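Kindly review these tokens for lecture notes.

. . .
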Amino acid sequence: MIAAWRQRLFATPLDAAITLVCLYVVWRISVPLVHWLLLDATWNGTSRDDCKGAGACWVFVRMRFGQFMYGQYPLAERWRVDLVGALWVLATVVLSWRGLPYRSAVTLATAIVLPPLGIVLLHGGWGTGLAVVETREWGGLMLTLFLTVYAGLIAVPLGILLALGRRSRLPLIRFISVVFIEFWRGVPIITVIFLASLLLPLIVPTGFDVDRLARAVIGLAFVIAAYMAEAVRGGLQALPEGQSEAAQALGLGYWRIQRMIVLPQALRIALPAMTNEFIALFKNTTLVLIVSIFDLLGIAQAALADPAWVGMNMEAYVFAGAIYWFVCFGLSQWSRLREKRLQVAHGR
């Protein structure tokens, strides 16, 4: 192992010089950064006056932690957010179990039951006996995850249908799919969110209102679905036509061929690109701030407006950025793990 690293980093005098320069740059950056983040930071206290050192004032994050996680969601009702998060984590763990019996039925049941159940628990009302919490009170990390998950639930199946439609032999279906994909790929996401929040209420029938959070979810979903369709189409094009032709010769219909033969292989090929779109979706949720929806980054910026914590910009943005990085890194590693498992399962 040591010999291999030595060969990689110090194989030639030029490689050794580059390695030493890079190590020097890393050392010059990391040492003051570690001092600011950890060694010289202030961890205990209740106000800005307790931050006397030269390092970060993590007292600000600790005192505002609830808002970073839940926004203005009522303190007494935050157990509902925790319950929804626990249900999604449990569902993810169960569906990731390789030996899960009746996997297709369990997946379908989860996809049908869990999303509306999550909305009911978070919003309340509707005869459940739970107090109503309007979406304007949602915020922080919970809202960022909500936007990502629910926009993704719309974008993935819609993207698959669009990819199939773009390869359809029916001219009308192909034309509609191409127009949808090219239109939403060509419009900036920030414009989509802005128009969905301000223009949509002007064109819907009088007396019919769409919640502004729902508008943001739909706008994000349409844009990501267009990109997701191209990722899936790349997977579809990588498959040889002979498989579909052989299935047709055996008497299988179009949808059975897609469900049993084509899509499982295409989605496996497209998994890295689809994961990239999910990561982009998670980061693009920050754009909802322009329509006064306070996600994690929006709550961080709102907290800086408090006169008691003026000047805590670095702490707010470093904390929010660290959460975004860890989530994106986790998605990337999950995708790599799934790729390896799928390759092993198919003997590659």
